Amino acid sequence: MTMRDLRAQWSELFENDPPVDQRRFLERRIAYRLQELAWSKHHAAELDANRARIALLVDKGKLPPRVRNGKPMPGSVLIRHFAGQDHVVTVKADGDFDYRGQSFTSLSALAKHITGTPWSGPVFFGLRSAGTKTKGGPR
To answer: Which Pfam families does the record match to this protein (predicted)?
Structure first.
């Protein structure tokens, strides 16, 4: 694009004149803004949730703790070396776990499938420590 085209694109995206007349700055900022706009079209629910959290923060001065389901993010790959083999698990978009073409709804069921004995799935895959028992009984 020519500098004239860059300035016109800037004015269209930001509704004001460019603050500087440097090609590299304009190109990078325009590219970033185009990515922001494209992302916002596909992630409207996330933006709405963030706006609600911001409004709550402004109104109350603090945020409630976020609820976490304890599962790793979709697309994560978990690898555990056990019994001389690497066991590779992929977290699917629906929250299930893919292991060698089989689908499992929980890491614990998957750990039991691999080991043959009951295991805490998050502990088996190293997502949580097993903890230590305290003296004098259960913790």
So the answer is: DUF2924 (PF11149)
